[in-house]
Specification:
Order of helices and strands: HHEHEHEHEEHHHHHHHHHH
Largest sheet: 5 strands, mixed
Shape: elongated
Helix content: 55-70%
Radius of gyration: 22 Å
Strand order of the largest sheet: 1-3-2-4-5
Amino acid sequence: MTQPRGSAAKSAALSAALSGAVDLSALKARAEAAQRQPAPSAGPAGGEGPPRPASGDAVIDVTEATFQAEVVERSLHQLVVVDLWAEWCGPCKQLSPVLERMAGESGGAWVVAKVDVDANPRIAQLFGAQSIPTIVAIAGGQPVDAFSGALPEPEIRKWINALLDALRDKLPGIRDAEAAGGGPAEEPEDPRFTEAEEAFERGDFAAAQAAYERILDVEPANELAKNALAQVKFTARAESADPDARAKADADPSDLAAQLDAADLDIAENDVEAGFKRLIDAVRRTAGEDRNKVREHLVALFDLFDPADDRVMKARRDLASALF
């Protein structure tokens, strides 16, 4: 979870990190131990504790105590999409309603398991979540794919449909839901995002940027388009950066163009702290228009990440110290 949010590279890296690396057994053991404890009183109705969600519910609130039943065991029958979120997380409030609506449309083919990371930090630690929102698909008791950040709805829908196609023969809940008339809703994709995504996929970054800018001209508050536009601009810069920029920047700290290119390469190769530090050091060495150019470049890099990312928060503090 260390690549810029919303990128295909980020999702691939996170999925690779999860593949075979997440051991659910420890959390399952804690859940089983908690379930063996006497249940708290449920008030006048007697000590049965809170009611368990019905099997057809599309959205489930999960804790460490209910993780085994509501995620691990449920994933033996249907796809479970774990939504790691927190009340203070702005991107979570954009992404979660989309996931919840889509799960409701699926007719039981898959469910959203919502985990408040503040109340259940060990679940977040289990998945190595360094920023939120982080979304992890669980099937057969194991993570099978993941992404982080608030992706556009068309991308999320493609991701879910690909998972359902891959898992249909393994999870009876998917087949049952589709036989009953559920399954993934085939809503028309937003053609504006489709145009932008297709341009990005074929490497036409100028066309992708123009497409996202047209969306923002009409909907200035569209956060998904803002995030996607930031990613397009970054990818275009990183791919055109001088591959020798870091060597040049290290050899000549006054070479401002090399410092900017080198920072982009650092971020693209997942050395986030190094990229931020490089530009903060450049801010300290420069003044006037040069300093402003470096500051604007650094702030644009911040926009690639969750604002609550610890690395971003530290870099913002360091930038303020360098400026003032």
